[in-house]
Amino acid sequence: MPQMPEQNRSSERWSRLRVYLWQRPVMLALMTALAVLFFLLVTGLTRAYQAQRRSLGNRWYERGVADLNSQRFDAAVTDFRAALLYSRDNYNYQLNLAEALLGMNHTAEASVYLMNLWDRQPEDGLVNLELARITAQKGQAQQAIRHYHDAVYAAWPPQSEGLRQKARLELIDLLLRNNENQKAQAELIAMSENADDDPEQHRVLGDLFVRAGDYQHAFTEYRLSLKTDPRNAKALAGLGLAAYQLGRYPLAQQYLGEAMKSDPSDSASAERWKTTALILCMDPFRRQITMAERNRRVVEAFSTAGQRLEKCASSNGNGPRAGGQQPDLSQEWSSLKPQISVRGLQLNPDLTERAMDLVFRVERETSSSCGPPAGPDLALLLLSNLHEGNSF
After folding, report:
1. Which of the two ends of the chain, N or C, has the fewest CB atoms closer than 10 A to its terminal CB?
2. Which residues, other chains included, contact 368 with Cβ-Cβ below 8 Å and sequence gap of 6+?
3. Backbone angles phi and psi of 213, in degrees to 5
4. Chain segment 107-128, per-residue pLDDT in tens
5. What is the tens place of the pLDDT at every residue in 159-187?
6. At 195, is the secondary structure helix, strand, or coil?
7. How far apart are CA 262 and CA 232, in angstroms?
């Protein structure tokens, strides 16, 4: 068989090589296109799957929110657990599940979720508020105070601003229950600076200032409350109490009287009004009274103090309790008694100061050694606090 010429063989090899070189990029392009197509298909399916999971999670979450708002806590727990099956790390799902668990009093389980959320977002106001409530309930006061502080100064959304005020009120109540009155006063002052014109808000602030022992700020808050609601019985009683504690007895009598008219069942205001009336009738240092009236009041006060000494001695077995100075006071009172009369005070006005100084010392000493006073003795004790350190 004749062999092909070398030239023909070379031509045939070149032709085959060109076909191969043309087919290879085509195959590569086809394979690449198929790979891209499969990738897009898988990505689309994955996204569709994730979207379906998100949709199912959101559906359960919305059901949970509705149940939570209706206080169907057991149903809400089931709903939020179902939602978490589709998004295990979803922050809102976990937070609302913790809220539902708290509604069922499952505090321990809720704490686990809340601590996990706090680790993720320690500045979250609602998480800190719930942790503060839980730790306060456990008696962990200092930890609760820290969480309340973080809740108060967190960045709350506008629609949740009321929760900031609620957190501060709960913080103040906790501080007062733990006798941290100065810290409570600081929080109250900050709260009052941001208060609006709501009379009830000012009344509540007044009540809290009273609990903190800050009667001056309480007086201010009650007056602000009455500015818009002048017949509010609780605010009137509060203002009367604040004036009473500040020693502003004419104002106290006025507002306590108005409180009694608004609420005849207010026995506390009635008792303070009686004491205030006694104070105003017995105070010998009021500028509006005459000299004769002043002398009469000194004689009456001196007699009242003597009776208090006698009763105190009788109740203690003819002697004061340990540490008392009653025998010395009794001797001093008996020594001064012959000089204390309206006539004697007219002849020697300087006796007024001596007599009232003794009266005030008697009332202070017997209040500690013989128990709290009542009636005229209480009025004189309050007068002693009012005039203590004054030059008569």
Report:
1. N
2. 324
3. 80, 15
4. 999 999 999 999 999 999 999 9
5. 888 899 999 999 999 999 999 999 999 99
6. coil
7. 8
